[in-house]
TrEMBL record:
Protein source organism: Aquabacter spiritensis
PANTHER family: HTH-TYPE TRANSCRIPTIONAL REPRESSOR SCO4008 (PTHR30328:SF54), TRANSCRIPTIONAL REPRESSOR (PTHR30328)
Sample GO molecular function, one term: DNA binding
Keyword DNA-binding on entry: yes
Source organism phylogeny: Bacteria, Pseudomonadati, Pseudomonadota, Alphaproteobacteria, Hyphomicrobiales
UniProt keyword terms in alphabetical order: DNA-binding
Keyword field contains Transcription regulation: no
Protein name in the entry: TetR family transcriptional regulator
DNA-binding region of this protein: 75-94
Amino acid sequence: MTVPDPATRRKPAPRAKPSGAQSGDAPAGTGKDGRPAGAKPAVREVVTRDADKTRMRILEAAQAEFARKGLAGARVDLVAEEAGANKRMIYYYFGSKEDLYVAVLERVYTDMRVAEAELELEDLPPVAAITRLVEFKFDYPAAHPHLITLLNGENMLGGEYLRRSTRLREMQISLIERLKAILAQGAQDGSVRSGIDPLHLYMTISAISYFYFSNTPTLSTAFGRDLATPEERAIRRRHVVEVVTRFIAAA
């Protein structure tokens, strides 16, 4: 039996590649790393999520520190320790202690504005919308006591750091415009008297609640009556709502 010479054996013809394919190409629809085409590297996504979480932990720790001690007394190393972050990371994300303080103020106001937007005041009749806003402005500082202490501290600084934030001004202007539209609708349908300045109305709504929560300890001592009890708060809440709704009511 004659054995064929290996050199003369015919090799199988190579498979034809798809048009435009090159040697080493990944399967169609995938990138070179085997991930779906167009997909971003998973490592980058994880790093971004971790950075966001670190930044949020720093802000939460800084908020508590500034609320307790104010800008002058707060210590960045304690913020880092509480956040479980390297002190250098605070300067990397925020630049300075003062910039971190501004970021905390922005966060506090942003959280409050987001909560206000969820009230969907525009979907309510004018008087009901303003009543809901008054109730919210009373309930919010009760649930977020750090707001009062942070605002007290910033007022003692003359509002110097709030002026550094353009975001805060934009948020405030947007809120006043919403209130202006509600008042205009009420004046048109006859449920609200005309001529009410939306800015002054908002300051009144804020002030009567802010004063109560910022001065409860001294007022309780001065009048010998614990104004911080749930019963006293309920009385004050009803009073505040009545004061504002009577003020805006059409004659």
